[in-house]
Fold:
Amino acid sequence: MPVEPPVVSPRDLASAYAALAADDAGSGPARPIAGGTDLMVALTGELGPPPARIVDLWGLDALRGIALEADALVLGALTTYTDIRRSAACREHLPALVEAAATIGAAQIQNRGTIGGNIANASPAGDTLPVMLAADAVFVLGSARGEREVPAAEFWTGYRRTALAADELLLRVRFPLRSRRELRFRKVGTRRAQSISKVVLAVAWRAGTPAVWRDVRIALGSVAATPIRATRTEAVLEGMSPTPEQADRAADALALELSPIDDVRSTAGYRRIVAARLLHRIVREAGGW
Ligand SMILES: Cc1cc2nc3c(=O)[nH]c(=O)nc-3n(C[C@H](O)[C@H](O)[C@H](O)COP(=O)(O)OP(=O)(O)OC[C@H]3O[C@@H](n4cnc5c(N)ncnc54)[C@H](O)[C@@H]3O)c2cc1C
Structure:
């Protein structure tokens, strides 16, 4: 029978940091829990050693809230998918994140699952992660040593590995707001709901006058060990107009750039073709042809 690890429920951030840093007679590092929709699955021990101690973040109001600042939309780590879907600020400034939130699990998971958990869990299939990469999001991390900022592009360091130290928490996510910035999200799974992604794609660009794309970002999930940017394909679209020829070139470039794996959810070939077609459609829709 699996043994339930002891749970600490800190009332403030300082107590949470202390609980994470405490060396409890060598029992192993403590793990934070937010909504628990990923971590509870790990408690059985069937997916690897379960956490020795748990620090429950749910009562920490410092990690909640959606704030519109002058140059950024800032989401606390405990922001749930339901919070995102209900937020007028998210719908206005980051509709692609609202679309991503709407595809995650069902209502129960959306009420409990948090963006902080999606980010820190570091699954390559985490649906919001390509949106974070394409939006140039910045993660604010905190510990007893202070706070630091890590760009999304530097956060996922390997398969299910992150830049978080064992005693650090993800506090909030800053999405920079830029004028004329466009961001699109697409997810392909086995079915329309309750499905783990086969391919997730987020594409961002700044629309110029005439219709030329600048600052192109193409980010993907479920096609590599971490969420990734397709920088060679970004270069193909940079400074170009969304014409049929550019869409063809970009789709070909993406199919060449990706090296996905075969796994239980999909084959490498399917992922490559689908990612390329999704990108082609986004360019086509932007070009209005
Ligand atoms: C039925 C079901 C369907 C699902 N469907 C989807 C889906 O469609 N798409 C998708 O992307 N995911 C899906 N998930 C996975 C999960 O719901 C999400 O990844 C969710 O965002 C996790 O958030 P959480 O708050 O529940 O994280 P938790 O389970 O509480 O934590 C997850 C990990 O993050 C760490 N952590 C959490 N918060 C912090 C923090 N603030 N600082 C540092 N570390 C932290 C924990 O220690 C743990 O390692 C599904 C899960 C289930 C059970």
User: Anything to note?
Assistant: Residues 31-39, 57, 77, 104-105, 109, 112-114, 116-118, 120-121, 126-127, 164, 169-170 surround flavin-adenine dinucleotide (CB under 6 Å). The CA atoms of residues 109 and 183 lie 25 Å apart. The first strand starts at residue 7 and ends at 8. Residues 268-287 form the longest helix (20 residues).
